[in-house]
UniProtKB/TrEMBL annotation, chains A, B, C, D:
Keywords: Isomerase, Manganese, Metal-binding. This is L-rhamnose isomerase. One of its GO terms (biological process) is rhamnose catabolic process. Residues 71-244 form the Xylose isomerase-like TIM barrel domain. It comes from the Bacteria. GO terms for molecular function: L-rhamnose isomerase activity; metal ion binding. The keyword Metal-binding applies. Gene3D superfamilies: Divalent-metal-dependent TIM barrel enzymes. It comes from Actinomadura verrucosospora.
């Protein structure tokens, strides 16, 4: 796809979902640093997300998180979003913040707690119905901290049972995206620690169960783009939770730690057909702006994904294939690196102007005065965070 | 299974397979240090393996590796083994040591090389027929060193095609065990890097395709016993290549680096029914005695597996279940650790005497004079190694 | 030191310090699960620590953490401890929980914030004077999340300046223990990421600056016992923050994740003279009992350290030296493993009875009714945690 | 240093040393794949190195490795190099490929073997004298595979003794560069596993002992640029062995696995004054072209270092400092990323033309016919490799 106008067309269609919780305060177990201008309500989070779309043009949806974004009237929340020029995207479940979940939610040894957790998941499907959402995101913190603490296999049985119940409840145009994570907050064994475990569960359930790849949830050295290529081949890649990390699940801005890795991932997405709208691969951000301004951080993140995508689209795939087939290691790598080394910022600036946007989203956002305004408006009340 | 005599019965039935190549010289890319008394032929390797069985009583089979153990008459080789009191176990394939395989074997971009590799795999099934072997072990070094070097997805297509052809060729009582490995010798992407990839391929092929877990082939932090429990639940655990590591695929003696991990693995095997003969889980060693004497090293390794198994069998599963179900984290962990902290060496010494063996296999082996004899007998000729 | 009575004498003298914060609530960024019976004041934390000493006999001191244990009258706090049969040990500083420290404390680009942080450190030396403490524990969360965020080298200059100021303030019988940590909460660069950095700073300052090894603060694969041996050889090992981990800084109970590693560490301590009282190596616990009862968890942890120490002391060092010097790899390893595989629980039970204690500290603690009592007594008020 | 002509001047002065062994065959423990046109003698390796300099203009020296490059007349070898337009750089020692070194070289428990190893190191200083070399590179594979195998501390004593003897022997204008490595070929404990250990030894000896950073020798997650900045601040950074890795010591082409990391390293070099000639930081490649053509691979590697250096030099340090000092996380990171995202290939092409070189070194090398010629000329004889 070397034709610049075709590349631009593809980039124009891109949709990157931002998460409502990225606009609230976040931190580590050591400290949540309070920031200025942080939204206090789900509506204000959506307002902030709308700014990201306003200046980038490619972030039309915002994911919500229940109960952090619990409201009485979800239809009204959806209308609020539309009013701001965006839509509600995935509904994210939360079965990790109740004292009952200390030893697990859907895999808890106690059946009453499992039932409570399942009820929450099903409630989230109700909310999907109300807001018109396609994707239910399932992340389970379930696991154990000590060898012997609970029965590894029994927990899989319980996991399978809960997933089947959720699957059953999904509507025709709905699906769930099943996340996996190596560790944290469980420190010995996580019930869904890797893509293989999520894949195996999804495979048994059917096409509405898909795997979601959070780019910060792997063991050191894991080749994430391999997983992407493999899942696309199997028709089981539901989407991404994008972020970046140097160490563990650091939740830094996507592309900040290893921009070359992000490019390799986007290349496999394009290569495997995952960029085509009909495959339904969801491109979502899931980050924590612990020390940087949040809206600005989201804009930068969206731009990072755009840049990696542009490079992946520009790659000369015919030349690459020719070099690969002839076994020319250095030439194949050179074609690959040529795309990566291209400075795509001018192309993206041009594209934005064609889309009626400012070529520099960060500058435009800063000039808009939005941040200064919300710092004033949101002085009082309780800033949103992971707890609320 | 707290009844000591039942534990002993179970331990008496244990079968740990040693690999012919462990008796030859091995090393790192930096140096293969030559040792004394190293076998020069497949027959001499079997002679050494027979010593391990002679003193431990639980190592009745020896795995062969083709072409390192290529002979003209495989039936004669099998007879030689029987003559020494052992049998030939798994047949290990080798598609990584021919100059043709520089860019891969079954996933090579060149179809002629893929064909050559497949022919070797099929030849190994012929050898299985000749020696009466049940298990074909498939390890592929296939992968790439540089991003872009080859097409990740096309290589999966080629892998699937080769595996299907091998599967087709298997006899009714034969199966293949598909290994995975994170890296080495491929340094960017390995075509089967993790259990999920091996599992997905095996699942499509059917019950004669099973996953084998090499305990040194994972990313740092991987919870191996989880994989064991998961695969047993899926009926897809074919067996183990046991060894241990502090860093990468160090191939140290099993249990040397993390004896607690080995215990946890053996516990999940017992818990998941993998110790029952009918599940067909193969317990194989795959190690490199780079700096230690090889027969002695194998005896020690077999003993390490025995000790971990004994502890796993002794674990008070009723007490564990009760603690787990009541959510008593510390009590459950304590029951687990009690089994691990038990010194099972006296029990095993007793068992050996009941089996007509010396209670201390290492002392008995040293006293036998075998090593001194082969040092003399094998002075001339070419010591066996990975290359031959 | 194979003489059992000598080993017992050594074990009788052991002193393991427990941390006041281990008795309060802790958790991950996802959730702090509230437990029952948690202390509400520094005094109640000391009460709980005294229970650990009461039943183990080897935990006579408790570390405090400022500001979590801030009181008006430190002499009174010290008297309270003595009244309960324990003493106050190390004073732990905290320059990571004020909003001012978002971009660092002593390495913050803003000199006013650096001054504030330094003032806190100096205040902690005042508290040491008041409670009669020898050790000041310095852990800095300082670092950066993004490449370019701050100047790596300038931050070292600022670190050196702060450390020098603290060193200068120390009394003749006081010292500071300088901690290092690979990551968390900083996710790109930590200002003191490894033992080399702490060592280099301490070396320049003099003998009252010592390195403390937190066993959970290393990169995957790091050989911690090497660091212990190296620092002891250099006279720079100040002590330990014991805990264990499978992944990152999981802060599990010491010995829970890798008991063999704990044994290897204790062996190097004994080998390097670090167990002799005059070397001043401090054995401290630093753990988070996120899901298990806290006092019980501390007792178990103390016992784990005791068991590893007993094994290290029992090791036949003459036999080990002989095997090492003759280059007998397997014999040397066998001597090492013999000590590890010994079940030292009977020896420790015997020792406890000789010390007038119950042979089973956990059973004795459970039978004491202490937990049930504090659950009642501490129903109201604010449970202590990392924030208070 | 935003002034393009100043940047070009700096780039013109760059000197990147290539290693003689990169031109010979290399591989993994599984297989050394033979390539065509591989040199058979030290002289031919120098011929190949000269090609890299010919087309890049910044690779004027070639490191030698003893005994792989052992010749009778070192003065003649130096003259041969000069004749080809290059010079001999660092002398690399090898005390890992003799059967005597199975349990170590300078830290071997056997004093006779230690003496033998030391003699080799001293012989290498003789060679330095003969070829006019400034740098002696010391890498020790010394370590142990099993806990207890040898005494950790005694090995440090032996290491210190050997290093002191070598230091003593160095001429006034000579120095040694002391390498460290986490693991391989030692799999439990390496005697110099990290920068801290090398640094501590070098510090005691004096200014002629410097640390060398091999970019592939660290634990996962290690922040290498931190080490670079720290060592430069201490005046102890002797140089680099450049290569790249996704997993362990993969020895891929520098910049191939993580080009952003290479940029960050080069930025810290520039920031810390390490790019100034007087600091004496040596920029060396140490790679294994297992599957790619070797001369071509070296050219590409040199270009990768050049590109990272150009970006580091172009970084707007005033803007960076301003953002850092004001605590503007996102702006500081943006300035940093702007430099990285710049496509410096046009600038480097321009520079090459100014230097009288072809703008595209790879194309020029391919067009030269050199490879085709040596494939013919070197058909017979024994290709050079790690063993010879």
């Amino acid at each position: 796809m070397n034709d610049t106008s075709a590349v631009k067309d593809a980039l124009r269609r891109q949709q990157i979902e931002t998460p409502s919780w990225a606009y609230g305060n976040s931190g580590t177990r050591f400290k949540v640093f309070a920031q200025q201008g942080v939204p206090r309500t789900p509506q204000e989070k959506i307002d902030d997300a709308a700014q990201v779309h306003r200046f980038t043009g490619v972030a039309p949806t915002v994911a919500v998180h229940i109960p952090w974004d619990r409201v009485d009237d979800y239809a009204a929340l959806a209308a609020h979003a539309e009013d701001r020029g965006v839509r509600i995207g995935a509904v994210n479940t939360n079965v990790f913040q109740d004292d009952d979940y200390m030893l697990g939610s859907v895999t808890n040894p106690d059946p009453k707690i499992r039932r409570k957790a399942l009820d929450h998941l099903l409630e989230c499907v109700d909310i999907m119905d109300a807001v018109g959402s396609r994707d239910l995101k399932l992340w389970f913190s379930d696991g154990t901290n000590y060898p012997g603490q609970d029965d590894v296999r029994a927990r899989q049985d319980r996991m399978a049972e809960a997933l089947a119940a959720v699957y059953e409840r999904l509507g025709d145009d709905q699906r769930f995206l099943l996340e996996y994570k190596l560790f944290e907050p469980a420190f010995y064994m996580t019930d869904l620690p890797d893509w293989g475990a999520s894949y195996a569960h999804c495979l048994k359930l059917g096409p509405k169960a898909q795997v979601v790849v959070d780019t910060g949830h792997h063991a050191p050295g894991t080749n994430i783009e391999f997983i992407v290529a493999f899942l696309l081949r199997e028709g089981k890649l539901g989407g991404f939770d994008f972020n970046s990390r140097f160490y563990a699940d650091d939740d830094l801005m996507v592309g900040a730690a290893d921009p070359f890795q992000l490019f390799r991932i986007m290349y496999e997405v394009v290569r495997g057909g995952g960029y085509d709208a009909e495959t339904g691969v969801a491109f979502m951000l899931d980050q924590c702006h612990n020390i940087e301004p949040k809206i600005h951080g989201q804009i930068r993140s969206v731009m990072n994904v755009q840049e990696a995508t542009a490079k992946a689209l520009l790659l000369d795939r015919d030349a690459l294939r020719a070099a690969q087939e002839s076994g020319d290691v250095l030439e194949a790598n050179a074609v690959f690196m040529d795309a990566y080394n291209t400075d795509v910022r001018p192309l993206l600036a041009e594209l934005r102007e064609e889309m009626g946007l400012h070529p520099d989203p960060v500058a435009a956002y800063k000039a808009s005065g939005y941040f200064e305004r919300v710092v004033q408006e949101r002085k009082d009340g309780q800033a949103a965070g992971w707890g609320a």
